[in-house]
Structure formats: C-alpha cells, structure tokens
Prior knowledge:
It is built from no helices and 14 strands. With 199 residues, the chain is mostly beta strands.
Amino acid sequence: xxxxxxLQKSYSEKKFKxxxxxxxxxxxxxxxxxxxxxxxxxxxVLENCVFSDCTFKECDFSLTKxxxxxxxxxxxxxxxxxxxxxxxxxxxxxxxLKFKKCTLNRxxxxxxxxxNLVITECFCNEVDFSECDLKGANFSKSELLKSIFRGTNLQxxxxxxxxxxxxxxxxxxxxxxxxxxPEALSLLDYIGVEINEGL
Length: 199
C-alpha cells in the first residue's frame, strides 16, 4: 500500500519511512533534502522526478526505472539497487553520488560521466561501466565480479580492497589508479605476462 505517501508535488526535509509498494508510477515530483528509510519501491517508474541532497537508508529500489529523473548529491546506504539502468537518469555535471554497503548487481552506468563516484563496500557484480568517465571514482572494498570496463576513464580511481575486477589496461585509462596486491595481478592477464615465485 502506498498510503498516499506522494500526493504533494514537492517535498522538503521530509522523512519517508516503511513505504512498501511495487509497480508504481510516480511522475513530476520534487524531493529536496529528504530522507528515505526502509522504503521498498520496486519494479516501479519514477519519471521526471528530482531528488536533491537526499539520503536513502536500507531501501529497495530494485528493477525501478528513474526515467528522465535527476539525482543530485544523493547518498545510498545499505540499499538494494538491483537491475537499475542508471543511464536513464539526467545527471548534472556537478552532482555527487555515493553508494555505501549497497547491492548494485546487474545494473548499467553505460556512457555516463560520474567523476568522483563513490561505490564502497558494495556488491557491484555484472554491472556495465562501458564508456564511462569515472575519473577519481572510489570502488574500495567492493566486489566487481563480471562487471564490464570497456573504454572507461579510471584515472585516479581507487580499487584498494576491491575484489574480482577484470580491467584491461589496453582499452581502459587507469593512469594514477590505485590497486592492492594480489588482486592487481589480474591486470597483467591481458598483456600475456607470466609471474612465478622464486627461480
């Protein structure tokens, strides 16, 4: 039940808690400095909505489409965000986006410019980052199994503590990026280098 949670056109500094709904369409709404806690809005459409300086904690937006919506300086903590097509969102150049301890599996950021993106301690498996500009992004302590990096700008990105990534240095820009051993050895797989211990 939606319980008439979104009847107004604009909300400011409002806290939404324990909303549980699916197959919902929300259009032309504005949320300014709002907090969403334990909200489950799945398989829905958020169209032409604006979320500015909002925080999301323990929410589930899996398989929801943010069509022509905007996320400006938003932070997600411990949220389920599976199968989201992030490229449908209209991103302002100066927006900051942070994901902490979230599940972002099977999503797509294809072609987006999201410098300084933060994805820390997240499950980020089978996610498409092709043709993205992720300069200065922070992927630390995240799991990146079968995620796609192709033609991606990863200059000065931080992968320390992250696992299972497959990044080809020949088709991605990794200048100044930070990696840990032994995971960083996977970068050598693409240039045919064999490493052995001892003589």
